Amino acid sequence: MSNVNKNNLYHPGTSSVRSVSSTSRNEVRYDIPFQPMYSNTLPDVPFEAKFLPHPFPADRHVKYETTMMERAYTGELVTEDDVGIFIDLVLIDKYEPNPNEPVQLHPTDELLCSDEDALSSTVKKSRHGGKAVPWMRRTEYISTDYSRFGVQTERQETKLGYHIQKVLKEASLYRDRESQLTAINKTFEDAKKPIREHFSKRGVYAVEELPLFPDFDAWKYPFAQVIFDVDPAPRDKTSLEETLAADQICRAMIRGMMDEKGEQFVAYFVPTLETIRKLKSVEGKDISEIDLSTTFDFKLLREYNWSVKNKASVGYEENHFFSFRDGRAYYNELETRVRLNRRRVKDGHVHSAVPNSRLIVRYRDLNDQELAALSARSMVVNPLEEEDDDEEEAEAEKHADGTAAEKKLDTDPSKLSPAKDNNQWSDNEVKFEEGSPVVEEETEEEIELYFIEALKTGKSCALFYLVMMPMFNPMKKMISDSRFALRTFFRTLTSAEFLKTPQNEPVLSYAPASDERIQLDQAIERLTKQVNNIHAVIGNEMFDCGFTGEQRMPFDHKTVLARVAVCDKNLIRKAIDVALDSRLAWERMPLEKRAEIFFKAADLASTKYRMDLNAATMLGQGKTVAQAEIDAACELIDFWRFNAYYALQLEKVRLISSKDVQNELLLRGLQGFVAAISPFNFTAIGSNMSSCPALMGNVVLWKPARTAMLSNYISFKILREAGLPDGVINFIPSKSETFGEVVLPSEHLAGVGFVGSLPVFQHIWKIVGNSVENYYNFPRLSGECGGKNFHFIHHSADFKTAVACTARAAFEYQGQKCSACSRLYIPQSMWPEFKDALIEICKEIKIGDPRDYSIFMSAVIDRPAFENICNYIEHAKSSPSLKILYGGDYDDEKGYFIHPTLLLCSDPNDRIMKEEIFGPVLTVITYPDTHCSEVLASIKDSTEYALTGAIFAQDMNFVNQARMDLREACGNFYVNDKCTGAVVGQQPFGGSRKSGTNDKAGGPYYVLKWVSHLAIKSTLSPIHEWKYPSMG
């Protein structure tokens, strides 16, 4: 046993090592080099193993869920520089072998390296236990199944090598490099022999011999094999239709889709007769000769389920196909195999295709990334030629420059493929006739199919098609209404990605010629070409109420954007009854199920309805595209996702329990209904005020603002499309006084969510307080009432940052943000330069129609707002303590336009320094540099509001002082940033004092505002004693 054959040891670079099987000493096989035998003296188990049910989770002792604090904590990284002098504790020299000393193996190692036949065993074993288990291979359970099925983990390479040796009877084949070269050279000799007969099929003879080459021209395109379960061609065809069907099949397209239930499928599109004519007319043409505006119409024929395998799939066998041209045969690889089976619904019937569905396709150039991918694939069969190894060194230097130039030319993407190859289908659209359902596509990646080519096979072959491998583009998008659905290609976030890593929805740029900008223009055109109708929705009923209300464009107040149903008191009472009838079923639905609806709604808002939301916000509320995107799209999506995420996290909170007592804390909805009264200035806030209480199990009456009806109506429809049940949220357009007279005195009122002016919220609070004896519960009141927000500039501030942030905070969205900056405190030493810079920005600000992407400001929302702001400007013109430095102009002839206005104030007690203006008016107070601390301390009590504020300073001592002095001056505090732009999940929003109840919407605890907790104690051990120990 100690004699080790050194020739059988494994050496790097050798392909295999000889070993002798224990079952047969006459046959040589190849296997892993080290194969010890393990002895087993125990008898076989006389019965089959039994499995007992396990009442506990298998991972209960090892499973651990991290808390939010742990996930948020960032550990410190201690580097080499932090621990002092570097000391190497490992002496590498000690591990270097001595070349003069022979290598001696340990006896155990020698035993492990010995052949199997050298391991003699006298222990009698059963035929099952006698099987050798190779070392370094996965452990195999030896059972009675082994004798029937054999070792299932046997490696394919081992089996194949053994089979070849057994058939050829050449034990030394491929043993060393010389034999490998001999075998390779033999293949060249064999290739010269003529092939007359098929090597395995008798009676099959060759009729033509062709040279075989890789398909150099087409290799750069990835191909896939698509196998249909039945012939996809239309049935019952005439002879003329047979020809047309062949043309359709040869030019068909497949595309990944998703239906209204969220189920994914593959749609099979065939070209129309007009499209076939167009395609034939452009075949063989260079892309420069094709009108890129030409569209090709494909109709949906069938729907399929699919299974896909590719090179990366386990067990996938490489497949190739052949093409014949110029007297040669060319082969190309099939990277992917796709099997398509007709869709069937649960009752077994074949799923019918959506009627009147269309796929609209255009040609376009390949982009740089696609050209680079084609170039990389082309290099597989067209590698750059290297210099001849035998070339003289001097000659190589002489031609080095020329060779390098040739190589550079070969790798240029524009040279690798001719212009005619740069054709690709793009700008995919799907159109529907009136009344047909919309086919949704919500896959992670957008598929672009280049072309489909039919491969004609023999009569006995199954029908299959070769298609260009789909080009996956993660930047996809879709918007639609009842008649039109459009796919685009920009990056969004899915709820599935969000749940893996919670993050905010990406903000799109809408740069010129970008996909999102093109789609937004189309959405704007669609919403403006007709007056939109907005219904009241109560339960599953829609009411028009004669469409007596209107929503007009603030920048063009003569244009009616939408006609609105206005509910009377009877309809509002009906809405309360419908909501209460829906409450129990909704409240008792598991939170996870409710959350799924809002995650799906977020995905719809991120894709299908994103441009409609933005367009409606721009047209109806006068926001620029930048302001609409961060509000109507991103913030709305973030509210839906983060609220659901936070609620699910809070539900996981566990109380202290013991073996005898089980304690639970449940999150219930409120008993009654919640009234949501939303503002005009943020589309996202309106939907959040209704959806957050609904998420927590409440039913809601939502009264949207008169000037934000269209965008709020679209967000409401998104929730219904996502699966929100009837009656959970009821959309109630109505007059404020009518709504309040019915809702506030109702005995079923459980809560009020309000965002608006301070006097209105104070009025609501008074009515609720006077009616408190009539309610079943104490209603929850949540309100946000604006602010008189400030920027405080310290002399150490970064000048450019302070100027830019102040201009944005004061004038973006015409100052109509609750957080807009309306007060500026600045040192006198900085003011002259700061004033010039701020006035210069005001001069550059462009005001106009939001459909002009170059503007920074548009019109204020309506005439009452316009008149209110103008009154403050007129007050500034007449007040001795105020001076207009810039602006002060306004015009309402076409829209309610007010120019950015900059005021200098000498009296900090002037009403313009205390009252909310809600317009593009910024008032400045300068202070002596030496009085910084006194002015800073006075800010907190200078107004009754406490919403947002910002300081700008590089002096950290001052920053720390300001954080303490202004602790109660605002609810959102910013350091070296503007006082607007709170982001969901990052800066929960809300203020105290007269700014509101500071419930911090967008934060982890806002959902608890709309929850009635239920604590449950379950005692698991009997209690028989009524006396306490102290009683003796």
TrEMBL record:
A GO CC annotation given for this chain: mitochondrial matrix
Residue ranges occupied by any Aldehyde dehydrogenase domain in the UniProt entry: 553-1010
Catalytic activity reported: L-glutamate 5-semialdehyde + NAD(+) + H2O = L-glutamate + NADH + 2 H(+)
Alphabetically ordered keywords of this record: NAD, Oxidoreductase, Proline metabolism
One GO BP: transcription elongation by RNA polymerase II
Record keyword Magnesium present: no
InterPro entries linked: Ald_DH/histidinol_DH, Ald_DH_C, Ald_DH_CS_CYS, Ald_DH_CS_GLU, Ald_DH_N, Aldehyde_DH_dom, P5CDH/ALDH4A1, Proline_metab_enzyme
Active site as annotated: E784
Known pathway: Amino-acid degradation; L-proline degradation into L-glutamate; L-glutamate from L-proline: step 2/2
Bias-annotated ranges (Basic and acidic residues): 396-413
Pfam families tied to this protein: Aldedh, Paf1
MF terms in GO: L-glutamate gamma-semialdehyde dehydrogenase activity
E.C. number: 1.2.1.88
Skewed-composition ranges (Acidic residues): 384-395
Annotated stretches, region: Disordered: 1-22, 383-439
Family annotation (PROSITE patterns): ALDEHYDE_DEHYDR_CYS, ALDEHYDE_DEHYDR_GLU
PANTHER family for this protein: DELTA-1-PYRROLINE-5-CARBOXYLATE DEHYDROGENASE 1, ISOFORM A-RELATED, DELTA-1-PYRROLINE-5-CARBOXYLATE DEHYDROGENASE 2, ISOFORM A-RELATED
Protein family per UniProt: Belongs to the aldehyde dehydrogenase family.
Protein name: Delta-1-pyrroline-5-carboxylate dehydrogenase, mitochondrial
Gene name of this polypeptide: aldh4a1
